[in-house]
Amino acid sequence: MRSELFAQRNAEVQNRDRWTLQSSKMLRTVITPDAPMIATKGAMVAYQGDVRFSHQGSKSVGQFMKKAATGEGGNVMRVEGNGEVFFAREASNIFMMTLEGQQDALTVNTANLLAFDDALAWEIKRIKGGVGALASGSGLFNLELSGTGTAAICCKGDPMVLDASQQPTFVDPQSAVCWSSSLAPQIKTDVSLGSFFGRGSGESIQLAFHGPGFVVVQPAENAVYTPQA
Q: What's the domain of life for this entry (predicted)?
């Protein structure tokens, strides 16, 4: 059988590297018995070998309470075994962030998180002044990763990195991908914009960043979560 589909550029990358970008929109990972991974549910698109997926339990009482109260940690699963797992989400671009020590921490919008090394510690963080964000359906809780290891993050389009140390930086909560955990964003509500666009408009609510650190922004918005009756 012949087809352009079988061109080398579409073939699986064969190596034993932990993380390999199969393309800008597909990530290939290697799972071994001594190196499991944590992934968000729905991120796996294929796997090969003896790989198992299970619910990721809380590592502390505090983490359990936050997961129960927010549901934020309930969408992660444990990936273990021996094989290759491919991750993607809605053909979004993928990039890696490598953390290099206990003082190195990154906060990620869980809508943009694919997977991360099990060696990384993770904690659910609440954005200050988040009542307005909750009412609009924007992200109120996010995951903070710290320690030594790598995280894979997806982005709708090409990411842009903003330096928040030079001047106050304001980002639509649905467009914020990740940021330095040294930054403590707060919710800023623009009443005039809210009156103009309507209360459900993302433009009326922003995340306000200011201080030494960076913010990664995507040129699109994540879908607004609508609670089920």
A: Bacteria
d(CA 142, CA 109): 5
Beta partners for 183? none
Using CB atoms within 10 Å of the CB of residue 188, give its burial: 0 to 12 exposed, 13 to 18 middle, 19+ buried. Answer: middle
Give tens-digit pLDDT for 125-178: 888 765 544 444 445 789 999 999 999 999 999 999 999 998 999 999 999 999
Least confident of 31-45, 99-113, 121-135: 121-135
DSSP state of 166: S
Give the chain's domain count.
1
In a domain, 27, yes or no: yes
Is position 226 within any domain? Answer: no
Q: Tell me, what CATH number does 139's domain have?
A: 3.60.160.10
